[in-house]
UniProtKB/TrEMBL annotation:
<keyword id="KW-0418">Kinase</keyword>
<dbReference type="InterPro" id="IPR010232">
    <property type="entry name" value="UbiB"/>
</dbReference>
<keyword id="KW-0547">Nucleotide-binding</keyword>
<dbReference type="Pfam" id="PF03109">
    <property type="entry name" value="ABC1"/>
</dbReference>
<keyword id="KW-1133">Transmembrane helix</keyword>
<keyword id="KW-0997">Cell inner membrane</keyword>
<keyword id="KW-0067">ATP-binding</keyword>
<dbReference type="InterPro" id="IPR045308">
    <property type="entry name" value="UbiB_bact"/>
</dbReference>
<comment type="pathway">
    <text>Cofactor biosynthesis; ubiquinone biosynthesis [regulation].</text>
</comment>
<feature type="transmembrane region" description="Helical">
    <location>
        <begin position="503"/>
        <end position="521"/>
    </location>
</feature>
<feature type="domain" description="ABC1 atypical kinase-like">
    <location>
        <begin position="94"/>
        <end position="342"/>
    </location>
</feature>
<keyword id="KW-0472">Membrane</keyword>
<keyword id="KW-0808">Transferase</keyword>
<comment type="similarity">
    <text>Belongs to the protein kinase superfamily. ADCK protein kinase family.</text>
</comment>
<dbReference type="InterPro" id="IPR011009">
    <property type="entry name" value="Kinase-like_dom_sf"/>
</dbReference>
<dbReference type="InterPro" id="IPR004147">
    <property type="entry name" value="ABC1_dom"/>
</dbReference>
<keyword id="KW-0812">Transmembrane</keyword>
Length: 522
């Protein structure tokens, strides 16, 4: 494949920045292919002497390279199967912070989005209070028709960001395709599929209407959860480029001193964080996948408030049952049942032995039960499970990787508030409630009802299906009664194709003949 000049220039710049910030120095020349070793030695010479820790190097390099690379780093943090667990852990702490693009540009974007001056949309439109790779956030005020004045958060998409991402994603895709045609390992990792998945995720983030819809769905799912608050969306002041939501007056979870000073119970907040995430994942199958401390607040009522629904995860019923049963299996030390769940979900090929797989799971579970409850990490457990299942030909499950990555963050937040938090006793009520509702007698009856409904729906469709089948058979009989006839356009197309084939076939024969004559004359 021939790279475009722009792709080569981007690749060279990225290589220089990665070398300068000390990222390439983390790679041992001895472990690299022979052709890459000289480049790695040069990279060590130009690396900064004060490059810092591994994670600091990745953060500095990707931030310098721009928004697309920051998003690439965050995405790869969810794919340890591609970059390895060590690099994935380094990328998990990558902060999505970029310089603000300014008040004037933001006001122009709002004016264009609503086709009226910013002063007619918002009574007050303040300066940016936060900025990331996709957008920045402004604090504003609106006046309702009844005269009520409300404070809102306005998220404004970066100008030209869609064009920038489209260009960078095209380059990433071409580089991935080149790598797959050159290296067997790249083909095994399906790098083009990785880039396509990331491109779809970023494309959804760049349409703020989809984030608004995510806010609304999350709010509907959790409306009866008294400990959780999701900001309300102002749809009249939201568009593709602008998202307006309720302003959250609260204390960030990262400010523990302020939480204590306000009289909040840190242990209770830690419990709410953990149980809220598990309820979203298991009960609703739709969870906030970016629950770092900057997106979590405690309001005056003691509720956990979540913001920034740009990255969300989904789990189907099969994945939720899988998660519930493996967690319950580890809680009850039922290794055989935990193994069977993997086979029932279709994650492990049937030619493997359930007993052998149960033995592998026991090897993970027994050491965990020998530790104190506050030392057990559910996220680490899921990581070990995914690692072991790879030995049994389990295919990569992106939704489980995103779940595991989010659980790492949630556990970190919860344990920063309560270092002695017992994850298992905290998770047990949520897991047991889900199992009782979905796998107990009530759940069995509900599934039976759904099954009968599907059978009834199919029965109503049978007459129409038979009618369409009879029509197709009649048309097929008419078409083949006197042999199969082709239309003039089809015959003309076949003729052109045959002519082209004959031309290139004759040309190839002439080339071979001339080559043979040349060899004979020599």
């Amino acid at each position: 494949m021939i790279f475009l000049v722009a792709d080569a220039a981007r690749l060279l710049r990225a290589g220089y920045v990665l070398a300068r910030e000390g990222v390439l120095s983390l790679v041992s020349p001895a472990a690299a292919p022979p052709l890459a070793r000289p480049a790695l030695r040069i990279a060590r010479l130009i690396a900064r002497r004060d490059a810092g820790s591994r994670s600091a190097r990745f953060s500095a390099a990707l931030s310098r390279l721009g928004p697309s690379y920051v998003k690439l780093g965050q995405f790869l943090a969810t794919r340890p199967d591609v970059v390895g667990p060590t690099v994935a852990r380094d990328l998990e702490v990558l902060q999505d912070r970029m310089p603000a693009f300014g008040q004037k540009l933001a006001e122009e974007i709002v004016t264009d989005a609503f086709e009226r001056p910013v002063g007619e949309v918002f009574a007050v439109f303040g300066p940016p209070v936060a900025a990331a790779s996709i957008a920045e956030v402004h604090k504003a005020e609106v006046v309702d028709p009844d005269g009520t004045r409300r404070t809102v958060a306005v998220k404004v998409l970066r100008p030209g960001i869609s064009r920038r991402f489209t260009s960078d994603m095209a380059s990433f895709r071409r580089l991935a395709a080149f790598a797959e045609t050159t290296f067997a390992e790249a083909r095994r990792l399906r790098l083009t599929s990785v880039v396509d998945t990331m491109a779809r995720s970023v494309a959804m983030e760049m349409d703020l209407r989809l984030e608004a819809a995510a806010y609304t769905e999350l709010a509907e799912n959790t409306r009866e959860d008294l400990d959780l608050h999701v900001p309300q969306v102002d749809w009249d002041r939201s568009s593709r480029e602008v998202l307006t939501t309720e302003w959250i007056d609260g204390i960030k979870l990262s400010d523990k001193a302020a939480l204590v000073a306000a009289g909040h119970d840190l242990k209770n907040i830690a419990r709410i964080v953990m149980q809220s995430f598990l309820q979203q994942a298991m009960r609703d199958g739709f969870f906030h996948a970016d629950m770092h401390p900057g997106n979590l607040f405690v309001d005056a009522k003691g509720r956990l408030a979540v913001v920034d629904c740009g990255i969300m995860g989904r789990l189907g019923l099969k994945e939720r049952r899988f998660l519930a049963e493996i967690l319950y299996g580890f809680i009850t030390r039922n290794w055989r049942r935990t193994a069977e769940v993997h086979f029932e979900a279709g994650y492990v090929p049937l030619h493997h032995s359930v007993d052998d797989f149960a033995l592998a799971i026991r090897a993970i579970g027994e050491p965990i039960h020998s530790r104190r409850a506050d030392q057990i990490s559910m996220a680490r457990l899921l990581a070990l499970l995914l690692e072991v299942t790879a030995l049994f030909d389990m295919q990569t499950r992106p939704e489980l990787l995103l779940l595991q990555k989010t659980m790492v963050v949630v556990e970190g937040v919860a344990r920063s508030l309560d270092p002695q938090l017992d994850m298992w006793s905290t998770a047990a009520p949520v897991v047991e409630n889900w199992i009782a509702r979905n796998l107990g007698p009530v759940g069995q009856l509900q599934r039976a009802g759904v099954g009968l409904g599907e059978v009834g729906h199919f029965a109503t469709e049978v007459p129409a299906l038979l009618t369409r089948t009879a029509r197709v058979m009649s048309q097929l009989d008419d078409a083949t009664r006197d042999g199969i006839h082709l239309s003039p356009s089809s015959l003309e197309g076949i003729g052109r194709a045959e002519a082209r084939g004959a031309f290139w076939g004759n040309a190839a024969l002439w080339v071979i003949a001339l080559a043979l004559v040349g060899l004979w004359l020599r």
